[in-house]
Amino acid sequence: ETGVTQTPRHLVMGMTNKKSLKCEQHLGHNAMYWYKQSAKKPLELMFVYNFKEQTENNSVPSRFSPECPNSSHLFLHLHTLQPEDSALYLCASSPRDTSEPETQYFGPGTRLLVL
Amino acid sequence: AQSVAQPEDQVNVAEGNPLTVKCTYSVSGNPYLFWYVQYPNRGLQFLLKYITGDNLVKGSYGFEAEFNKSQTSFHLKKPSALVSDSALYFCAVRDGSGGFKTIFGAGTRLFVKA
């Protein structure tokens, strides 16, 4: 257990559905991250939140909508996804998003399949 | 721009033999380098990092990595592989000159045979 939990662990959705992924960290960290992991591709950083404010959006399509209501929770709202969005979505947290090379703690991920 | 390359999709090693998982990087400033491991159905777990100091860094589970500035490499090593080391390994780099992003490689799958 890394102190970062993600729900659901698996999700199957149609292209017209709306769903949300949830991430919660119990580490007292102030920075949270969403990554997309596709087979044989580098891990893609999607969003970064620092003290609940979004500090990074790596040109992610608007069908992915993040929400960070507090430093412990991070959501990824999904709507009208495409089959190529099927992947493992990983959440991570770190004490704060600074230029210091702090270790990120990762959750187990949500395996998403878009039909 | 930062980048990380893991040239091998897969590495096969017999148990008890030494293992090496390769990583090369490119950053404009000073590199901060990381290795993570991902076991099946688990998130990434931190193994070790290089920030400054000794080029040989020791980490969890008996792993170590060697920073080579001239070759821009940060290969992961272990003197004697275990079957339980079988997993997906990710190298990552962050620009120590002020960048906030950590860039990950595509991962290398390690198979250790008994």
Layout of strands and helices, then pairs:
The complex is a heterodimer of chains A (115) and B (114).
Chain A: E1 4-7, E2 10-13, E3 18-25, E4 31-37, E5 44-50, E6 53-57, E7 64-70, E8 73-79, E9 87-94, E10 105-106, E11 110-114
Parallel strand pairs in A: 2-11
Antiparallel strand pairs in A: 1-3, 3-8, 4-5, 4-9, 5-6, 7-8, 9-10, 9-11
Chain B: E1 3-5, E2 10-14, E3 19-21, E4 24-26, E5 31-38, E6 44-50, E7 56-58, E8 64-68, E9 73-78, E10 87-95, E11 102-104, E12 108-113
Parallel strand pairs in B: 2-12
Antiparallel strand pairs in B: 1-4, 3-9, 5-6, 5-10, 7-8, 8-9, 10-11, 10-12
Give short descriptive properties of this protein.
heterodimer, A: mainly beta, 11 strands, globular, B: six-stranded mixed β-sheet, four-stranded antiparallel β-sheet, 0% helix
Average predicted local confidence, pLDDT of chain B: 92
Structural class of chain B: mainly beta
Residues in helix, % of chain B: under 10%
Order of helices and strands of chain B: EEEEEEEEEEEE
What is the radius of gyration of chain B? 14 Å
Overall 3D shape of chain A: globular
What characterizes the major β-sheet of chain B? Answer: 6 strands, mixed
**What is the β-strand count of chain A?**
11
Number of helices of chain B: 0
Distance between the termini of chain A: 31 Å
Number of strands of chain B: 12
Q: Structural class, judged by helices and strands of chain A?
A: mainly beta
Oligomeric description of these chains: heterodimer
Number of helices of chain A: 0
Helix content of chain A: under 10%
Q: How far apart, in Å, are the first and last alpha carbons of chain B? A: 41 Å
